[in-house]
Amino acid sequence: MPEISIADDLALALDPVLFARRVGIDPDDKQQELLTTASRRTLVLCTRQWGKSTTAAILAGHEAIYSPGSLTVLVSPSQQQSTELLRKVHGFWKQLPNAPAADQENLTRLTLENGSRIISLPGSERTTRGYSAASLVVMDEASRVDDALLAAVRPMQATVEHGRFIALTTPAGKRGWFYKAWMDGVGWHRITVRADACPRISKEFLAEELASLGPLRFAAEYDCEFIDDAASAFNTALIEAALSLDFPPFFVEAAA
User: Fold this and answer.
1) SS3 98
2) Which site from 52, 89, 121, 127 is most exposed, i.e. has the minimal number of CB atoms within 10 Å?
3) Is residue 228 within 8 Å of residue 236, measured between CB atoms?
4) Among 188, 165, 172, 193, which Cα is nearest to 77's?
5) CA–CA dist 146, 148 (Å, integer)
6) From residue 39, how far is each of 42, 90, 120, 189 by CA, in Å?
7) What pTM was estimated for this model as a whole?
8) What are the pLDDT digits (tens) for 130-168?
9) Average pLDDT of 37-59?
10) What is the distance between the alpha carbons of residues 16 and 30, in angstroms, rounded to a whole number?
11) Is 16 exposed, middle or buried (CB count within 10 Å of its CB: 0-12, 13-18, 19+)?
């Protein structure tokens, strides 16, 4: 693979989209939005098979290579998922000829000679404490990460002026921190991608999935809709409709 010139290397450092193309990924419009947003806090609600993990891995690789001494933390509900995300980062890093060499490589950590570290962690509050000054935190399948883990992760960026926190997921019902942040959170940049807007997913495939999964499951997996758990006795809309503050008091104070 040919060496990269100083000018080309500078262009790659300044443009994550160009970096993505250099490592073999041609990002679509929504992926480009995620790669280039300057927001410190980003929520990505997307269809299955959009490429969220691939895009997140590109971001992590770009951060490690072009921000010497940086710490990137990859978090997901399980160590297996976090390890898979790190594996993708490793693959992109290997494709760049001028990338800094590795000082340490294993299933949970990639440390480069420029001082940058990428660490993959499982979805456990106990195992994520102790890390600090993370310039980039990527939380994959964020709707399936509990509030305790979020509380353990957020302080990692307390001392980083321009740190970025990116949470990516498909919906997992009307519950949890991601659902609350998506619906009512302040200060988040939101990106949503339905399956019918993804150029890599065919209409024929979606028709087959709709017939196989049924409309409710399909809406959650491919239309980015927050659907109540099928095991719930009452759905959220019915519960909210039943709630009212407009009712007479239970007790009437007797006249003096």
Assistant:
1) coil
2) 127
3) yes
4) 172
5) 6
6) 6, 25, 23, 6
7) 0.85
8) 788 999 999 999 999 888 888 888 889 988 988 999 999
9) 96
10) 13
11) buried
Give whole-number Cα distances, 250 to 226, 229, 241, 247, 253, in Å. 36, 34, 21, 9, 10
Handedness of CA 54, 71, 84, 13 (dihedral sign): positive
Which of helix, strand or coil describes residue 207?
helix
Which residue do the tokens 């949470």 mark? 167
Do residues 172 and 143 lie in contact, with contact meaning Cβ atoms separated by under 8 Å? Answer: yes
Residue 168, beta-bridge partner list: 44, 140
DSSP bridge pairs for 42: 166, 189
Nearest one of 182, 58, 86, 77 to 122, comparing CA atoms = 77
Average pLDDT value for residue range 52-73: 96
pLDDT in tens, 110-128: 999 999 999 998 776 666 7
C-beta of residue 223 within 8 angstroms of C-beta of residue 210? no
pLDDT above 70 as % of the chain: 87
Q: Is 191 helix (H, G, I), strand (E, B) or coil?
A: strand
pLDDT at 239 over 70: no
Count of CB atoms situated within 10 Å of the CB of 64: 28
The CA distance from 247 to 67, in Å, is: 59
Taken in order of first residue, the domains within the chain and their CATH numbers are 6-201 (3.40.50.300)
Do residues 164 and 135 make contact, with C-beta atoms less than 8 angstroms apart? yes
- Overall average pLDDT of the 166-187 stretch: 95
Nearest-CA neighbor of 107 among 78, 149, 135?
Answer: 78
